[in-house]
Write a structure and sequence with these properties.
CATH class of the largest domain: Alpha Beta
CATH superfamily of the largest domain: 2-keto-3-deoxy-galactonokinase, C-terminal domain
Number of strands: 14
CATH architecture of the largest domain: 2-Layer Sandwich
Shape: globular
CATH topology of the largest domain: Nucleotidyltransferase, domain 5
Strand order of the largest sheet: 3-2-1-4-7-6
Order of helices and strands: EEEHEEEEEEHEEEHHHHHEHEH
Length: 303
C-alpha cells in the first residue's frame, strides 16, 4: 500500500461489511473493505477492526474519521442517538464523537433518523440522502433507496419530512433460501418476462400475495417453472407489493433511486410500468458525498 496522508477518512460500516476510503482534496485516494461488519464485533473490537483496515493511511498527527451506518447502533461501537424527522438528513453539531485509544484518529458517527408515527428508523440511508441532495440541488420529491430494507423518503426544502421502510430485500432472501420456495430457486439466473409478470400481478392484486407465492412452488412441481423464472417472478411479486403500498410516496412525484445498479434498474423498470420515469444515482457516490457533507458541517461548527 503506498504511503499517503489523507485529509480525512470516510467509513461506511454496515451489519456485514466495513468499507473505508482515504479522502484527499481531489477525492478518493484509496479504498479498503473487510467483512468486519457490526454483526460480528463486540464493542471493544470495533477500533482494532478499523485500524486493521486504515493503519497504513495514518501518519503523524490526527486524522478525522467520519462514519455512517450500523456502527452507531445500540449494538455498535458507540450509539449515535436518532434524530427525529422532519429534519435535515445530516446536520451541523449532530455528529457523535467516539472516544478512541489510538490518538491518530478523531472518530465521529453520523446519527440515523427516526419517525414516531408510523414508527420507523434508518441508519446509513440518511447519509446517502444527504449525498443525493448535494448532487441534486434544490430537489423536492421522493428518494427511494432499494436494498435489504428499502426506504422511501419524502424530501422537501432539503429536509426528510417522512419515510417508510419495506423489508423487501430481506423477504426475498428468506423466501428464496429458507422457505419451501427454495427448492425451485437454485442458482442466480434471471428471466425478465417472469419478473414483469410477477410485478403486474402484485401491483394489481397485492392482497393475493400469499397465494401467488405458493404458486411458484406448485408451478415448479407441475409445469416445470425454471429456477430463473421463479427467482425473477418472486422479485417482481415482492417489489410489486412494495410499490402498491408505497403509492402515496411515488404517485405524481419526482423520484430518485439510490442503490446498486441491478436493484435500481429493477425498481426503475417497475416504476416505468406505472408511467413514472425515475432518475438513478450510485449508492457509493451518494455515501461519499453525504460523508463529505457531514465533514463540511463539522468544519463549520468548529470554526
Amino acid at each position: 500500500m503506498p504511503q499517503m496522508k489523507p485529509d480525512w477518512i470516510a467509513v461506511d460500516w454496515g451489519t456485514s461489511n466495513l468499507r473505508a476510503w482515504a479522502m484527499g482534496a481531489d477525492g478518493v485516494l484509496a479504498e479498503a473493505v473487510s467483512d468486519d461488519g457490526m454483526g460480528k464485533l463486540a464493542p471493544d473490537r470495533f477500533e482494532p477492526a478499523l485500524l486493521r483496515l486504515i493503519s497504513g493511511w495514518l501518519g503523524a498527527g490526527q486524522t478525522p474519521v467520519i462514519a455512517c451506518g450500523m456502527v452507531g447502533a445500540r449494538q455498535g461501537w458507540h450509539e449515535a442517538p436518532y434524530r427525529a424527522v422532519p429534519c435535515l438528513p445530516v446536520a451541523s453539531g449532530a455528529l457523535e464523537s467516539v472516544p478512541t485509544n489510538d490518538p491518530r484518529i478523531a472518530m465521529r458517527i453520523v446519527p440515523g433518523l427516526a419517525q414516531t408515527k408510523p414508527a420507523d428508523v434508518m441508519r446509513g440511508e440518511e447519509t446517502q440522502i444527504a449525498g443525493a441532495l448535494s448532487l441534486l440541488r434544490d430537489f423536492d420529491g421522493v428518494i427511494c433507496l432499494p436494498g435489504t430494507h428499502s426506504k422511501w423518503a419524502h424530501i422537501s426544502a432539503g429536509e426528510v419530512v417522512s419515510f417508510q421502510t419495506y423489508m423487501t430485500g430481506e423477504m426475498f432472501a428468506l423466501l428464496s433460501t429458507q422457505s419451501v420456495l427454495r427448492h425451485g430457486m437454485a442458482g442466480g439466473g434471471w428471466d425478465q418476462t417472469a419478473f414483469d409478470e410477477g410485478l403486474s400481478e402484485a401491483v394489481s392484486r397485492p392482497e393475493k400475495i400469499a397465494a401467488r407465492l405458493f404458486t411458484l412452488r406448485a408451478e415448479g412441481l407441475l409445469t416445470g417453472l425454471t429456477a430463473d423464472a421463479a427467482r425473477a417472478r418472486l422479485s417482481g411479486l415482492l417489489i410489486g407489493i412494495e410499490l402498491a403500498a408505497a403509492r402515496p410516496y411515488w404517485l405524481g412525484q419526482d423520484v430518485v433511486l439510490v442503490g446498486a445498479q441491478s436493484l435500481t434498474n429493477s425498481y426503475a423498470r417497475a416504476l416505468a410500468t406505472q408511467g413514472l420515469t425515475a432518475r438513478t444515482l450510485d449508492a457509493t457516490a451518494c455515501t461519499l458525498s453525504g460523508l463529505a457533507t457531514a465533514r463540511g458541517l463539522l468544519g463549520k461548527v468548529s470554526q
